Amino acid sequence: MSLVTFGTAVRRFWPVGLAVFLICAIGGLALAYVPAERFEATSTVVVRPSEDLGPNIQGVRFVLPSLAAQANTEENYAAVQAALPEALQNSPWEVAIETDPEALLMRIRASSTDAQAVAPVANRFAQRIVRQGPDDPLVVFSPLEQATAVESTANARTVLVVGGLALGLIVGVLAMLSAHALRPRIVRAEDLRKLGLPVLGEIPAHRPFPKRPSELFTASEHAPLAQEYERLRTNLEVHRARGGGSAITLSSIAPEEGTTATTANLAWAIGSIGHAVTAVDANLRHPGLHERFGQSNEGGLSAGQGAGQGRSIPRATSLPSLGLVVAGHIDQHPSEVISNNLAPLVSELQGVGEMVLVDTPSLSEAADCLIVASVTRGVILVVAARQRTPAEVEGAVQEFREAGADVLGVVLNRARPRFRRKQRGAAPRRATPKAEPDSHRVEPKPAKRTVRSGRRKT
Asked: Does this model's pTM top 0.85?
């Protein structure tokens, strides 16, 4: 087991480990302090062979257990109780007779919650045994040591408390590891590749995460993060070069996994090299794409009426090659708006060579994303690291395939950085495609466009 696995198990299931630890710790405290404190005292009797038996010690060892059982009788208990001082008559006590065959000894151990009672009980019980004598004439009893010292069980409390804490820690760790093994989570890209899914990008956890793409791609401190979106763009262009479609749905399994941020930043990365791209906000229930580009949520997808009106919907952004279709305010069911307006818009944008990225709600929120996926025929699944299980990812992929869409790959969001990059002295990034090209790549020139009716045209 690696430290990464251990750390992941602790982060995911620390409540389970804490609950198990507290149960064991409370149990140890209960065993230590709920029972009343008890006291013990021991008196010793020697068992030796009689003159008739001679030096036959083995015979004494053989009968010693039976002699102890004969002494532990109700009659002796009653006699000892009657012989106690009046002040101890109401004290509860118990006697256990232990044997030591090697030393030929019987130890009478008295225990009670009354510290004053244990020594008198042990001594009187031993005297009773000696006075009564053994049933076997070949054995003789004689007192060896009277009980004087009183032992408390308080020391055992420390052992119980420490033992409960140690046991709780061990069992708590095992419980977290077991829970992690039973419910594995997607942590690394390798976990997705084991499911047979291409990993198009690994977006590292980054704080603070820039709200807008223009901030991410211009500030030097965000350069490592911007590079990962550029890597995602490259992988997507490879897909298109192999004959893939130009309309793609971006969705997730549950809310708050980063679908909107991925859509906005990927669209900006594509538009920054001059490729025509339009970002469409089909998350009509919780629209957010307009905020990423600093625009209002007026008009947009909800205002379209079908074919022929798609070109009046997209808005221009600060990148000449990047357009935006906001969700707009709806007065009918979101699924109805998507069914009526999305397909004509996507068809018209694809007809002029535009790449279309559609942001949708998650699968757990609504079936809208399945309707969108059936239109675009291509899906990128955004998965937040340490949030989803392999079974959840496989189930989501199956749902999209049943809707007639092809899952192109997965973007692992909020992943651990694969390596640390130095950020000091990094050159600031420019938001426009007019930036100086890298030495190893010639940037294509953006197409000349003019904006008409709020939308650029070729």
From this structure: no
